[in-house]
Amino acid sequence: MINERVTGGLMIRTALPAETETIADLHFRARSTYYPDGVPPSDFDWYEAWRGSIARPDGHVLCAVERGRIAGIASFRTPDGAPAETVKLFQFHVDPDRWRSGIGTALHAACVEEWQADGKRTAVLDVHVDNRRAQGFYARQGWVPDPENPPAEGDHHLFLRYRVPGE
Predict the structure, then answer these.
(1) Could you tell me which of 106, 117, 123, 93 has the C-alpha nearest to residue 28?
(2) Contacts from 137-142 at CB under 8 Å and sequence distance 24+?
(3) Could you give the strand order of the β-sheet that contains 59-66, starting from the edge strand earlier in sequence?
(4) pLDDT top residue among 9 and 135
């Protein structure tokens, strides 16, 4: 697991439990940008979800820290029932104020580095259909539509797959 990786002025490291509120807030702000009418009302507790993700022994939460402030987050693990060489990127967000600054690319590279070290060969994710900016980012990183998981009619997510480069 990555404890700390410095790229330029950006540090990528494992998230700490004390950062849960900051991470949940960044997640909400980033997520708010791709819903045309704002984030749908929900009784889902993202703070608790992030707290659980950070505490999971089988999960990984990385954060990109710039000038002492969390500017990006990524959460991934092997999903239940999936082959051991598969990893799912559950959440990947960059602070909207820092888009197009290279943070997402550096954070994605750190994820790939960890997937390689963990022996992962395939990564999967789902992205909201209205999140065109994220779809473009993932395409630039090498993600493609998942042939094993085509979108179902009425589903609001596209399913993508990434071949983790071998060593």
Answers:
(1) 93
(2) 137/104, 138/162, 141/105, 141/108
(3) 4-7, 10-14, 59-66, 69-77, 86-94, 122-128, 157-163, 144-145
(4) 135
Residues in the chain: 167
* N-term to C-term CA, the chain: 17
Q: Check residue 89 and report its DSSP letter.
A: E
Task: For residue 101, give both structure tokens.
Answer: 């600054």
128: Cα separation from own chain's centroid: 13
CATH number at residue 42: 3.40.630.30
**What is the domain range of residue 110?**
4-163
Question: For residue 88, with 0-12 CB atoms within 10 Å meaning exposed, 13-18 middle and 19 or more buried, which class applies?
Answer: middle
Tokens 């598969």, residue located: 86
Give bridge partners of residue 161 from the DSSP assignment: 124, 144
Instruction: List, for residues 9-42, the tens digit of each pLDDT value.
Output: 899 999 999 999 999 889 888 877 766 665 656 6
Per-residue pLDDT tens for 35-75?
666 565 666 677 788 788 888 888 899 999 998 999 999 99
Number of domains in the chain: 1
Asked if residue 59 lies in contact with residue 75, where contact means CB atoms within 8 angstroms, the answer is: yes
